[in-house]
Amino acid sequence: MPIYEYQCPKCDCRFELMRPLSKSEELGDCPKCKSPSKRAMSRFVSRSKSDLSMLSHMPAGGGSSCAGCSSSNCSTCGGG
Ligand SMILES: [Zn+2]
Hints:
Strand order of the largest sheet: 2-1-4-3
Largest sheet: 4 strands, antiparallel
Structural class: mainly beta
Order of helices and strands: EEEEH
Strand content: 15-25%
Number of helices: 1
Number of strands: 4
Radius of gyration: 13 Å
Bound molecules: zinc ion
């Protein structure tokens, strides 16, 4: 089975899932925050209008900690 790369719109982490080609277009759950994530477009700029519309659903500035990510290694909540 091929491996596809996904990027979480919430914590911006990338992860890989092994799944059949028929399911390659389906959303994959982020291993950190369980957010449904679209496939990462390698060799392309990942920011598209659809990504931005998804980002607009995020709670803005909720606090100092990442909303759904329990890891301190998240690119969103890290750097503290
Ligand atoms: Zn995530």
